[in-house]
Design brief:
With 589 residues, the chain is of the alpha/beta class. The protein folds into 3 domains: 2-211, Aminohydrolase, N-terminal nucleophile (Ntn) domain (Glutamine Phosphoribosylpyrophosphate, subunit 1, domain 1, 4-Layer Sandwich); 224-361 and 459-546, Rossmann fold; 364-456, no CATH class. It is 45% helix and 15% strand. Strands 3-4-5-6-10-11 form a 6-stranded antiparallel sheet, with helices on one face. A hairpin with a 4-residue loop joins strand 5 (113-121) and strand 6. The longest helix has 27 residues, at 458-484.
Length: 589
């Protein structure tokens, strides 16, 4: 009976995740029915049946299911072959299996790539789960009654009946505060997201979690010319590594510095016949299609441009809502360009995501240090800070002052200053909303302390916040869900452990210069018409497009917001949560 139940759950997982791997699928369970894996495959490396998963060692002891790519798998394979390890396929999956057989969890620092993986050791009756250092690939898990279940998407666990329905209060508050669900929580109380740079071992019904990598800055002495050369070499190495593929690799090209730099480095690395993809919109202030088209012509790519207007934008939005895994205030742009690339036959694309976090492309790098200095100064009188914070949190006229009020009521950390600047709702507003959705009292909700950011340089500290709080929980998660919904693998050369560790050696005052000057110095091929214009990125005129079709629902979202200065992002956050709740059958307040 238990084995039949396991088989049914595995088949449900395959059905729920089919969009992520349209090329192949596989299900395995051990003889005793105590363990089983379900896998759907997007064939990128070793397109033959040799890359089929779940994959097993010849002795039948180790079994693996793996999502992602290991860019240095050929070098790792050669090392193992020199030690006498035989191979039967050309896949990176088999390399992982053999590495684990030889090194166990110690293999993780050797890997360069993006991954979420699970390995079952039948002899030890042990399950090993691991996630890549920077959190590119998601991994959700739940433990109930000694049973471990996991998947690449939260909704897959829901579809298979492996997750409960109770909302997590802390996750809900953080969602309203930041516009995305913050790991390790999910919106479901019994499901967690394995943190980036961590692994789990399940044995005898219990879990042990360990961290094998974390964001840290070294800041070695360098003169500017040496730093530029160092950064150039690191960037070129990363972009070249991300072209490891047995299928063509394209590039998402906006009118911004980061994606243009990726294209320039690809060309400098000798990569030819590149397809580039961009989106144009019917709003002159937001449209970057002309810049992207001009850049594509400069670098000689085969350029594809999709124009969206109110009609096509509304259709894309409807499809996007169906694709959502957990709600966030972003993702529609990635969904639209991913669908467009997939329609044009692509299976792998590169994105410039991560450049802003590494090279100070956000206003936060100027604003947060100033806000943090003010925060620390006010906290010289802690009682006054608390009283002022309480009053400002309830200011009816200014959302910014309400966020500053929440900041003053916490310890004066860089993170609390960052959340005050980056946040959507103040912590007070977020708790008011959460209490409404959870149908509980405000005072019964948990306090959410701000953690001390252990970084010497204030600008490095902001960079760490951008990487670990914003990029990881929103940009990377949305990028994975939206691209994989189209059977498209999105790779991010700026989000690479090897690149980060090399850039972390560069002093902050050089790496984090205004205007991403270090990146421009390292990649001078970026043309003047790209860097000499306002930063926009992939943005859409959401209000203009969606006001007519979705106006009533956005109006309903507005009515739920505590204060009457609701910005577009606030309405979007409530609207997206409502849709997620409706689809997840959890029910609404």
């Amino acid at each position: 009976m238990e084995r039949e139940k396991l088989s049914g759950s595995l088949q449900q997982l395959v059905s729920a995740l089919k969009h992520r791997g349209p090329d192949d699928q596989g299900v395995w369970s051990n003889a005793s029915g105590t363990a089983g894996f379900a896998h759907v495959r997007l064939a990128i490396l070793d397109l033959s049946s040799g890359g089929h998963q779940p994959m097993h060692t010849p002795d039948g002891n180790l079994h693996i299911t793996f999502n992602g790519e290991i860019y240095n798998f050929r070098e790792l394979r050669r090392e193992l072959e020199n030690e006498g390890v035989p191979f039967h396929t050309q896949s990176d999956t088999e390399v992982l299996l053999r590495l684990y057989e030889k090194h166990g969890a110690a293999m993780l620092p050797k890997l360069r790539g993006m991954f979420a993986l699970a390995i079952w050791d039948d002899a030890r009756q042990l399950c090993f789960l691991a996630r890549d250092p920077l959190g590119i690939k998601p991994l959700y898990y739940t433990l109930s009654g000694g049973r471990l279940a996991f998947a690449s998407e939260l909704r897959a666990l829901q579809s298979a009946g492996l997750a409960g329905r109770q909302l997590d209060a802390e996750a809900l508050i953080r969602y309203f505060q930041m516009g995305s669900v913050q790991e390790p929580q999910t919106l479901l109380a019994d499901v967690y997201c394995l943190e980036a740079g961590h692994y789990l071992q399940w044995e005898n019904g219990s879990l042990a979690k360990s961290c094998y990598w974390r964001v840290a800055f070294a800041n070695q002495e360098m003169d500017p010319p040496a730093a530029v050369q160092h950064v150039r070499q690191a960037l070129q190495d990363s972009v070249d590594a991300h072209f490891v593929s047995d299928v063509p690799v394209g590039i998402f090209l906006s009118g911004g510095i980061d994606s243009t730099a990726v294209l320039a480095l690809a060309r400098a690395g000798g990569h030819e016949s590149i397809d580039t993809f961009s989106i144009g919109v019917d709003d002159a202030e937001m449209d970057e299609a002309g810049l992207a088209e001009r850049t594509a012509k400069l670098f000689g790519t085969k350029h594809h441009m999709l124009r969206l207007d109110a009609v096509t934008g509304q259709q894309a939005f409807s499809n996007f809502l169906h694709t959502m895994d957990q709600p966030s205030v972003d993702g529609l742009n990635t969904y639209a360009v991913s669908a467009f690339a997939a329609q044009n036959g692509m299976k792998v694309v590169l994105s410039g995501l991560g450049g802003d976090e590494l090279f100070a492309g956000y206003k936060s790098f100027d604003a947060v240090p100033r806000l943090h200095a003010f925060n620390r100064a006010v906290h010289q009188l802690p009682l006054a800070a608390g009283m002022a914070g309480w009053a400002l949190e309830r200011n009816p006229c200014s959302a910014k002052l309400r966020r500053i009020g929440s900041m003053l009521r916490l310890m004066p950390t860089v993170e609390s200053s960052y959340r005050a600047f980056r946040g959507i709702f103040s912590l007070h507003e977020a708790k008011l909303l959460a209490a409404r959705y959870l149908e509980c009292s405000y005072d019964s909700l948990p306090d959410l302390p701000s953690h001390q950011n252990q970084v010497d340089d204030i600008h490095d500290a902001v960079s760490k916040c951008e990487i670990t709080l914003y990029m990881r929980n929103q940009l990377l998660r949305d990028s994975d869900v939206m691209s994989m919904s189209q059977g498209l693998e999105l790779r991010v050369p700026f989000v690479d452990r090897g690149l980060f560790e090399r850039l972390a050696l560069v002093p902050a005052h050089l790496r984090l210069q205004r205007g991403k000057q270090m990146l421009l110095d390292a990649v001078p091929e970026v043309p003047e018409w790209i860097w000499n214009q306002p930063k926009r990125g992939f943005v859409f005129p959401f209000e203009k497009w969606l006001g007519q079709q979705w106006g009533d629902e956005f109006a309903e979202a507005t009515r739920k917001i505590p204060y009457k200065d609701a910005t577009w992002f606030k309405r979007w956050a409530v609207f997206m949560l409502d849709h997620w709740l409706e689809r997840s059958l959890i029910g609404q307040a």
